[in-house]
Amino acid sequence: MRKLSAVAVVAAVVIAACGGTASTGGAPSASTAAATVAPGPIKIGAVLPLTGSFSASGTYFKQGYELATKEINDAGGLDVGGSKHQITLSILDDGSNGTKSRSLVEQLVTQDKVTALLGGYDTGLVEAQQAVPDQYKIPMVEGGGAASAIFTRGNKYLFGTLATIDDLGKNTMDFLKYWIDQGKLPKPLTIALVWENTDHGKDYQGAVNLAAKNTPDYFKVVLDQGFELNGSDFTSLLTQVKAANAAAFLSDAHLPDYITMHRQYTQLGLTHKFVSYGARGPDQKGRDALAAAADYLVAGLWWTPAQPDKGSQDFTAKWKAAYNVTPDWFQALSYETARVLYAGMTKAGSLDGTKIRDALASLDFSGSIVPGGHISFDPTGKPKTQIVMTQNLPGNKVSLVWPKGVAGYSDAIMPLPSK
After folding, report:
1. Whole-angstrom distance, CA of residue 378 vs CA of residue 80
2. Strand stretches in 21-124, DSSP E
3. pLDDT for 198-219, tens place per residue?
4. Which CATH class is domain 2-162+310-375?
5. The pTM is what?
6. Of 85, 216, 277, 358, which residue is most buried, by most CB within 10 angstroms?
7. CATH class for the domain made up of 165-301+388-402
């Protein structure tokens, strides 16, 4: 009994060092764990786009994974079955190429013999990777792919930390409905909708169109147009947006396309009563590139430094100290993704892939910095997490504007000021 109590105490200390808590029920006995955990470091692998189209976001994810891992190692190592182990993190570059991404994940499993995987960044790249965990029964936790399709393919060893894009779209439409009811936006609200031609973009398109179908007195989509990723010129698309004469402009775009599109939107002199690029807007790289043109944009996010809770504020300060920049959701969710994986491994008390998978499936990671403070999963591996809406303000400031009543909430400026 003393040995078992000691294991429980050590496990609790390590998870506390991660900044979160998780149920340790179902962990193996100390004697069983000792037989399944060999001495020495634990190998964890990740494949990220450190070059190519998504290199900026991939670098953020690399930094988040590294910071969470460093904290574990600095605290003495990860507790697995009552013994502490240093973590060796191997991160490979897929060059933003899906075929290469899958191949490198398989290399980490078959050649480098990693115990578990952290996922890539970008829905398409995560989709390229996602068959590997189930094929080899090696768990993966990812925080860079948010398309709902990821969680419809029967995978048992893949877990996500991002609320999916259909949820983001629904939150955006609920937000707009509220401001229509306040008389700040016209009813029905005419919408010019453009979306990247990926599962990510189709989720957003579907959510907007569903709201328009279910509440036609509130919304009318007057333009519904897809576009290809990594565009260099959106002039033709934006000409269609202008011709649609809509009151609101909604676009689902990745960070590079958002920057290009909104710069051209501004150059063409377009204005709308409401503008949102999905999850883009407060990203520091975007604000640096667009300056005042990004003011008043509204975004749906998985985390923001505007959250006033102590965990978020501590993380923001920690990130600034480490990297001399204010973190965006990319950094926060990659950090949380690694912490969730490590908490699952501690809960499993084993380095066996199936046992780690089972521990993650029943994990309730509390003390998280994501909105709501918890990360858990449904039976498909889809996360039970929340989204908040933010609005950019002049002076590089951001306010929390949805859901109403969330800690730190303030009313949005609506309609958007004319520029």
Report:
1. 25
2. 42-48, 78-80, 83-85, 87-93, 116-118
3. 999 999 999 999 999 999 999 9
4. alpha beta
5. 0.89
6. 277
7. alpha beta
